[in-house]
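Hi P.,

Sorry for the delay on this. The queue was packed all week, but I finally got your sequence through. Input first:
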Amino acid sequence: MAKKENKETEEIIEEEATEPTIEEKLVAELEAQKEAYLRLAAEYDNFRKRTSKEKEESFLNAKATVFQDLLPVLDNFDRALSVEDTSLEDYKKGVEMTFSQFQNVFEKYGVETFGEAQDDFDPNIHNAVMHVDDDSLEANKIVEVFQKGYKIGDKVLRPAMVKVAN
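Then the structure:
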């Protein structure tokens, strides 16, 4: 019976010896957390690179689409320049048609013109390059437009160059 008790005691001591200590458990948990953190950091880095690449591709595709729509306008200018013998009337008509085609492309992409005579002057969207003092004109009204302004939504692509009454 003493042998049996010794054997049981040895088995209990072996079990206790194979059970990890608190330090070993904490080290193992720390290693697991470190692995999870490194995995998460790598996933985030991959996500950042992927979204950056997608953004660049999206911008490139948007530019390509716009320029594809402008190519027919360019083709019409090429045709107009290649014609040698034409009347001034026909040439003017061709330029007007090409201009109209160009405006249609702008309209398709939501580009709007602004800056008309008699509009109120707004320094956020107009660039006053000249002022005129005339009592017959209303103050802060656009008198003359030298260059139209263009915008998409609220984003001004180019302010209108105008002459303003004081």
